[in-house]
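To fix ideas, we close by showing one paired sequence and structure record:
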Amino acid sequence: MVTYSARLTKSGVNSWAVEFRHPVLKDREGKQGRKIRRGLGVNQEESQAVVDDLNQLLADQSYWSLSEQKRAAKEFRSKSVDIFYDQMEEELTLDPWDRREKKIKLPDHKDGYSRVMLLGTTGAGKTTVIRQLIGTEPDEISFPAISASRTTTCHTEYVFSEGKWYGVVTFNSQAQTIKLIEECVWEAFRRAVLGENEKTIAKALLSHPEQRFRLSYFLGQYRTTNRTNSKDAAQSEDIPYPDQQELQADLDYIINEVRALAEEAKAQCPPEGDDIDEVIDLLYDVWVREDTERFNDLVQYILVLIKKRFDVIDLGLLYRDTRGWPEYWYHESEDKAQVLKTMRWFAGNEGRRFGQLLAPVVNGVRLQGPFKPSWWENDSSPQMVLIDGEGIGHDSNITTSIPMDVTARFKDSDAIILVDNATQPMLDIPKVILREAVSRGQLDKLMVAYTRFDQVQGSNMVDDEDRIDHVMGIQTGAIEAMQEAYNLNSGMIRQLRDHLADLTFFFPNANELQSPPEELVTEMNRFIEALESKSSKVQLHFTNGDNSFPEYDFGRLVLVISETEELFMQKWLGLFGLRASQFPKQHWMRIKALSNRLANWPKLAEYNDLKPADDLASYLMQRINEFLYAPKAWSATVPDQEKTRIVQKLSSLISDKIDELIYKRMKIDNHAQWILAYNLRGNGSTFQRVSECRSIFEKVIPQPRISYDTDSGDLLDEIKGIIVKAVDEIKAEGTSIE
C-alpha cells in the first residue's frame, strides 16, 4: 500500500502552507493520491502542528472514511480535520429523494391520492399553475418564486393534506458545492488573465455557465457604483436585508484575489498564442488547482461564506454533517405563513435578498399541508401530490431527451402534465416530452395544460371556442407530425391524439391570484377533477377472457441497435463537428466540461444541455417501443386499444432497466477512458478528446456487424433479457394490468 506524508512549505514571504497527497481522493488521471495544498497562515508553530496532525491521519488507515470524521475531530485540530475531509464524497449519503421521503412520505393511490408530475419548458407557466393550485395569496411571500429566467432548479413536491404544515429541504453535498465553486473561480480567473474589467470578472464568478449554481445568491450582485445600504428600508422585516457594503467588501476581496492569482500565473508563464482560451487552459489548469494555495484558499473562503448564510435560518431544525455542512432542514407548524416564510431562503429569488439566499445548494423541497386553491369551495383539500422540477430544455436547440432522474419518476406518477404556452403551442421541447412519455409507457397518464390562453388572438378567432379549435388544431398537427419525425407507431399516435382530445385544458389569466376570472376557475375545477380521478388504478379485463401477450422475433433487435446508433451518432458527431448535422458544433470547452463530469463527478453524466446518456436512453427506448408494437404474433385475439395498453405496460416495465443499462455502459464501464479524454492537454488535444469521446460512444452503442462483436453482442443480449423479463411479468399478471 502506498503511504503519503504531509510537509510544511513556504507560501509567499510571511505565510506557510501544507502539501500532501490524499490517500482516498483521486487525481486528474484517476489515480489515488490527489495533491492537496492548503494555506495555513503566518504562525509557523501552529502550521507545523497542523502538518503533524495530517501525518498522523495519513499514517492511520482507520481514519480514511468520512464516517470517521467525528472521531478525528476529538483527536486533532479542527483545521487539520477540515483539510483532510473537506473534499471526501460520502459514498453512503442517502439519496435526497429518500431523505425527503423519510421525513414526509408521499401518499399514493393506495391512500386515495393522485401523484401529479408537471413538465414543460422554462417559462411555460408551470410555477404559475402551481401557485393557483396551492392557493398562493398575493400578500404572502412570493412562493413558489417566478421570474423571466429559469427559476425552478430543484425538485419540489407539494402534499395536499389536512392538519399541520410540514417542510423538508435537502441540499447538495459539500464536495459537489466545492467543485461548482472551483468552476466559478476558474471562469473568473480566465477573464482576469485576459485583462477583463472587474464587472466582467464578477459576472463570470457569480453565475456558473450552467446557470443553476449562482454565487450571486450568496455573495450579492457586483456593482461598479456605490450601493445603498438597505438596512433602513428593512426595519419592518423580521430579518433585515443584507448589508450591501459588507457584501461589496467580500466581493472586492474575492475579485482582487482572482486578479492577483492571474498576475501570479502570467508571471509564472506568460500566455501566448492565437486561441488564448486554449492557451490558458493548457498553461494553468493543473498549476492553479494544485501548485498554488491562493486558488484553494479562495474556494475555501467562499465555502465558509456559504456556510455562514445558513445562519439566517431561525425556524425548524437544520441537520449538519460532521463537517458542519447542512444535510437537510425540517420543520412543522400550525402556521402556514411560518413555514412558507422560511421558503424565501431556500427557494426565493428576491433581488434585495441576494447575499442571503440558499437556493443554489438546494436539491429538493417537500411541503405538506392543507393546500387548496383560493377559490376552492370544498372544506377539505384536493387529495393530490404535485411534483415539480426544473424546466426541460431551457429553450436549447440541442435538447432531444428528458433527464433520467425525471423519467425514473414516471412509474410512480398517476398523471403527467405537459404545461405549454398557448400562444406558441407544441414547439420542439413539448413534442420531446410527449414522445418520451409515450415511448416509456405513460400514454394513459398524459394531459396537456395551456397557460396564457387569454393571449391567443387573431382576426379569425371570435370567441373561446375559436381559440380552443385553433390551439387544438396545432396540437393535433404536431402529434401527427411526430409519427414521421420520430418513426413512431401509427396506432399509438392515433391513440395519443384521441386521448388528449378530452384531457387538454386551457387556463386564461392564470397569474391572477387575487380575483381569478370565472373562466379560469371553471377550467381549473375540471382539471382538478381529472387529476383526482387518477387516484384509482385502472384494471383492464380482456373482452374474450383469455390471457394475451405478444410474441417477438428477437433477431429484429439488431435493427433496434442499428437505428439507435444512427440517430445517436448523427446528433453527437454533429455536436463534435465531425459530421454535417442539424445540431451545431459545440465549443471545445463545453466538450471538455462534459468529459470532466463523466470522469470526475460522482453520479453525473451530463454538462448543461450536453446529455449523452439521456439522449442514448431516449433514442433506444423509441426504437424498442417501435419493436414492441410490431410482434410477430399475439397469443390471443384482443382489441387494438388493449394491445396498445399491453405494449405501453411493457414499455413502462422496460424503461428504468434501459436507463440503468445505458448509464452503466456510458459512465461506469468507460470511466478510465473518460479520465483519459479529460486529461488530454497540448496542441491537438481538442481533436484527440473528441476522438476519445467518439471511441467511447462506439463501444456504448456499437453498429452491429456480421462477425460477432463483444460490445454489440453483450448489448443485444442485455436488451433481449430486459424485454423477455417484462413479457414474463405480463404473462404472470394474467387478465389484469395495473
